Amino acid sequence: MPIIPKNISQINQNIQEAITLSSFDEKVTLVAVSKGQPFTNIVTAFDAGIINFGENYLQEALDKKSHLEKLAIQWHFLGPIQSNKCKLITENFDWVHSIDRVKVMKLLNDFRPSYMRPLNICIQINSSGEETKSGIAINNAHEYLNDLIASLKELPMLKLRGIMSIPSNTENINQVVTEFKSMYKLYTELKTQIDTVDTLSMGMSNDYKLAIEHGSNLVRIGTAIFGAREIKINGSDN
After folding, report:
1. Which residues contact residue 215 at a Cβ distance below 8 angstroms, ignoring those fewer than 6 apart?
2. Pairing, β 52-55 against β 29-33
3. Total domains present in the chain
4. Which of 33, 78, 103, 139 sees the fewest Cβ atoms within 10 Å?
5. In angstroms, rounded to a whole number, what is the distance separating the alpha carbons of residues 71 and 207?
6. Residue 238 counted as domain residue
7. Could you tell me the sign of the dihedral formed by the alpha carbons of 61, 64, 69, 71, in that order?
8. pLDDT, tens digit, 9 for 90 and up, residues 130-177
């Protein structure tokens, strides 16, 4: 079996095992993070059953979409958002996981074409407190979330689905578990306030099983599916 389908099969098996070990009986969505991968690898993953693909860099994603228009892919934008990129992001993606400002929400809403369904969004939480990571600081999350939720009432082209985080880059499993637990607590609180909330987006190649065991129902996996990146990424293009 070719390596990408084999990897996907193993990951799906691991996901089911993690669900069994957890106390959460929810379906888990697998988003293949295809940044740095050629469109041919995306086709291979799609043929192996993946329909959700995540990209961090706008121009790279648009180039890929131009080759893959005939595939029924759900596109997820995962990277930091510059205001001047909001129009193209909202016109070309089904999901945006990296919301952390009201200004960006308003731009995404205003630029979303009226013929499209509302854009699915997740609010990014900085659960680690690391300055290198984007998102709302976990210590200030309640205050900022209340502001974002209030703004949603006037943004009909946005649909809040949940929250997203990237945990600390550490080998300290206890630290990662603590962050996952704090995210799940925040998620359950948000879910009681907004009836569209159904997504806790956390867990990547090195920690997705642990994330699922602590409540994640959407994991974003790149390296474990595709291996090393094949496309040189311009970090300034997001």
Report:
1. 22, 24, 180, 183, 184, 187, 200
2. parallel
3. 1
4. 139
5. 29
6. no
7. negative
8. 776 788 888 878 778 888 888 999 999 999 999 999 888 888 899 999
Q: What is the CATH number of the domain that holds 53?
A: 3.20.20.10
Whether residue 234 is predicted with pLDDT greater than 70 in this model: the reply is no
* Cβ atoms 35, 224 nearer than 8 A: no
CB under 8 Å, gap of 24 or more: what pairs does 204-207 form?
Answer: 204/33, 204/166, 207/167, 207/176
CB 41 within 8 A of CB 64: no
Which ranges of the chain does DSSP label H, i.e. alpha helix? 3-21, 39-47, 58-67, 86-92, 102-111, 141-152, 173-193, 208-213, 223-226
Range of the domain at 111: 3-226
CA distance 8 to 103: 37
In the 3-class helix/strand/coil scheme, how is 76-139 assigned residue by residue? EECCCCCHHHHHHHHHHCCEEEEECCHHHHHHHHHHCCCCCCCEEEEEEEECCCCCCCCCEEHH
Residue 233 domain flag: no
For 27, the token pair is: 């379906």
* Single-letter residue type at 209: K
